[in-house]
Design the sequence.
DNA sequence: GTCTATACGCTGATAGAC
DNA sequence: GTCTATCAGCGTATAGAC
């Protein structure tokens, strides 16, 4: 059964990309050599260059792969749920869950400085998942679920708190799983943090 | 007047650090060679190695220099203003102003992945300015100015929105100076974004 | 398609004159 | 203290066998 001893090409691709992802997140793109990827993935140098052309090729394909995964996550949510406000909550929930279950995928998106290996001036936060996330907010404002504020400012406030938690969690500064903070974050973003002072009388 | 033709040693240090800062932010630490720093600063390779010992030395001293500057900014605010809630606003205001006037300093702090050149597991967000920023929130909760929520979650919500704006501005995704968004951001963080729906009657 | 051994360019760092 | 010229090591990519 020779077809079992040889790996399917997609499996080799995935092996290489998975190893590369973990190494990039652990050490940073430039501190990872092609030989490191070779060792951890178990395939040969030749195979890496045959499949990806270059080290940058590995990073680029990996990046696109992950952006696609994220894009699908967002699309599924916006297609399933009606209310923008609820879509927004679900997006944050899923991002928190991903942060705990697949931290390196999230770290690669939120932590890396992609301009270091992505040629040109491609910007992560202009990629489709992030654009869609901002559109959710825009619709929420239009349909009156959110206060009528500037779209960018509203996006920053709502997702900013969540993204900040993700970053602090990935850095190990927050020690508990952030899924536990979900309700708190949502409540704060929706209703604010100002203490309800008893009506001030002069 | 030979004392005018020769630069004071501190001036050379600053020249090197300023050039390094700009190059690091523009291209990323690993895409900058010592020769690049040499060319832009106008001093010799020898001077760089004499003053800083290594490329990593340049980055480390630069990093400490900037963290100190930020630390002083925060300290001045906490010593001058009484109310934690107002301290917090002032911090965000100053960070926004810095983002516009000295973007590269802010970019170096918020954008860089410092683990790539800082030895050990030193974390930016555990450095003194960020710890102090979180303490401001903690005090605000204690004295009743903020809702009694988890300290980390509250910090993330308040600063997260602002930091997100800074990041989007540095990436060029926000086109207007973010100082214009200051009031909106503060209002959203303090009072929330949920639209005040007319009392729902069944 | 996959492998190993090799080449070539680049970069951080040094040596030694001034 | 400052400079220039040079080195040594590493890391990407390739050549060529299987």
Sequence:
């Amino acid at each position: 059964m020779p077809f079992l001893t040889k790996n399917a090409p997609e499996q080799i691709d995935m092996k290489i990309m998975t190893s590369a992802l973990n190494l990039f997140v652990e050490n940073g793109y430039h501190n990872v050599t092609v030989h490191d990827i070779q060792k951890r993935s178990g395939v040969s140098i030749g195979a890496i260059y045959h499949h990806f052309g270059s080290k940058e090729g590995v990073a680029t394909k990996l990046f696109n792969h992950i952006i696609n995964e994220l894009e699908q996550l967002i699309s599924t949510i916006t297609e399933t749920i009606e209310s923008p406000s609820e879509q927004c909550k679900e997006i944050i929930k899923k991002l928190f869950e991903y942060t705990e279950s697949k931290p390196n995928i999230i770290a690669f998106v939120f932590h890396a400085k992609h301009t270091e290996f992505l040629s040109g001036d491609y910007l992560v936060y202009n990629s489709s998942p992030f654009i869609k996330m901002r559109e959710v907010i825009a619709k929420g404002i239009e349909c009156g679920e959110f206060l009528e504020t500037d779209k960018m400012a509203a996006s920053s406030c709502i997702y900013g708190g969540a993204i900040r938690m993700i970053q602090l969690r990935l850095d190990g500064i927050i020690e508990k799983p952030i899924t536990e903070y979900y309700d708190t974050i949502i409540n704060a973003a929706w209703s604010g943090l100002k203490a309800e002072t008893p009506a001030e009388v002069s």
Observations:
- Chain B has two domains: 1-53, 63-191.
- Residues 1-6, 198-202 of chain B have pLDDT under 50 and may be disordered.
- Residues 9, 43-47, 50 of chain B lie near DNA strand D (CB under 10 Å from a C1').
- DSSP finds ten helices and no strands in chain B.
